[in-house]
């Protein structure tokens, strides 16, 4: 894994993407763009759901742990031959490729951190774990003296995650807890205090900047971890398609909030974290960042 300066996209590329505020507003009813995305949405909700991945996305949300883990598995499935063909095309989208790329980057960051600790007892807290696919990949390679707490707002997701752990024989030293990542009071009840806090796939679905800033400050003040691992979706040429045609876990338009890595790193530095190590995925969509406490 190479960690270095982020590759920067030029201003022309970024200007072509609608802003977060623009994506939250409906398009004019009879505009060509609205008619186009309405057609795409109808196509995906009907013919598209022959694809297992697209079907999962519409049932659970395209920002859910369920769809993320399906994308990670990268095993095209669907009803009839056409369903599998559509599923393969879905899994081959650049956004899906980026998801799979950052899974490995995140895994490597965690393994490098554990190696750095040279066998010392290490407590890891994932505050929005989903099914925690990459955590289990880590534990299959290194699980000595590692204690894991997986938290998520969705109890069913944690239940599915525990089933995965049982299937892999990784049930020792893993705990599961339902919790809202933005609930500051609940952070005070976390024990033991973690050495490493993980927050991946999170900031893009938190819409208010102030919520992230306040959360990072609370994280530092209450838990004060040795290290923090997070990712930031910085650019995505498919962002409008996702917002106009797909749905989130609540059944609303799946509007992701793009931010620059520099902006989120700045907020983390203001909270007291330091020394960012940054790796971009090969598609220049996500920055994966490790910072120290």
Topology:
Elements: H1 11-15, H2 20-24, H3 32-45, H4 52-60, H5 65-73, H6 80-91, H7 94-116, E1 122-126, H8 133-141, E2 146-152, H9 155-168, E3 174-178, H10 184-187, E4 196-199, H11 209-223, E5 227-233, H12 239-245, H13 261-271, E6 274-280, E7 286-292
Helix pairs in contact: 4-5, 7-8, 11-13
Task: Describe this entry's structure for a reader.
The protein is of the alpha/beta class. The protein folds into 2 domains: 20-93, no CATH class; 95-292, Vaccinia Virus protein VP39 (Rossmann fold, 3-Layer(aba) Sandwich), CATH 3.40.50. It has 13 helices and 7 strands. The protein has a 7-stranded mixed sheet with strand order 3-2-1-4-5-7-6, sandwiched between helices. The chain is globular, with a radius of gyration of 19 Å. It starts with 10 loop residues before the first helix and ends with a strand.
Strand order of the largest sheet: 3-2-1-4-5-7-6
CATH superfamily of the largest domain: Vaccinia Virus protein VP39
How many domains, as an integer?
2
Number of continuous helical runs: 13
Q: Which parts are unreliable, with pLDDT below 50 for 5 consecutive residues or more?
A: 1-13
**Measured distance between first and last alpha carbons:** 22 Å
Instruction: Write down the oligomeric state.
Output: single chain
The averaged pLDDT comes out at: 91
CATH fold-level label of the largest domain:
Rossmann fold
Please tell me how large the radius of gyration is.
19 Å
Helical amount: 40-55%
How can the largest sheet be summarized?
7 strands, mixed
Shape: globular
* SSE string: HHHHHHHEHEHEHEHEHHEE
Structural class, by secondary structure, is alpha/beta
CATH architecture of the largest domain: 3-Layer(aba) Sandwich
Regarding CATH, which class of the largest domain?
Alpha Beta
Beta-strand segment tally: 7
Instruction: Kindly estimate the percentage of residues that lie in beta strands according to DSSP.
Output: 5-15%
């Amino acid at each position: 894994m190479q960690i270095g300066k982020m590759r920067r996209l030029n201003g022309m590329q970024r200007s072509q993407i609608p802003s977060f505020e623009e994506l939250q507003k409906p398009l004019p009813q009879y505009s060509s763009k609205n008619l186009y995305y309405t057609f795409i949405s109808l196509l995906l909700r009907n013919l598209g759901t022959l694809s297992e991945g697209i079907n999962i996305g519409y049932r659970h949300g395209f920002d859910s742990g369920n769809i993320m883990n399906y994308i990670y598995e990268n095993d095209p499935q669907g009803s009839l031959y056409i369903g599998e063909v559509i599923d393969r095309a879905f899994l081959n989208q650049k956004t899906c490729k980026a998801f799979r790329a950052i899974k490995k980057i995140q895994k490597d960051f965690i393994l490098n951190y554990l190696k750095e600790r040279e066998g010392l007892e290490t407590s890891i807290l994932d505050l929005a774990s989903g099914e925690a696919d990459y955590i289990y990949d880590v534990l299959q390679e290194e699980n000595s003296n590692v204690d894991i707490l997986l938290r998520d707002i969705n109890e069913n997701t944690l239940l599915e995650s525990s089933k995965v752990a049982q299937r892999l024989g990784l049930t020792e030293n893993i705990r599961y807890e339902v919790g809202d990542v933005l609930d500051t009071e609940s952070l005070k009840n976390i024990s033991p205090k973690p050495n490493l806090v993980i927050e991946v796939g999170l900031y893009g679905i938190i819409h208010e900047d102030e919520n992230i800033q306040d959360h990072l400050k609370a994280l530092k003040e209450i838990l004060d971890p040795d290290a923090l691992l997070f990712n930031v979706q910085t650019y995505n040429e498919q962002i409008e398609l996702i917002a106009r045609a797909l749905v989130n876990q609540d059944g609303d338009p799946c509007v992701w909030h793009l931010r620059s890595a520099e902006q989120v790193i700045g907020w983390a530095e203001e909270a007291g974290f330091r020394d960012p190590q940054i790796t971009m995925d090969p598609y220049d969509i996500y920055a994966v960042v490790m910072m120290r406490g």
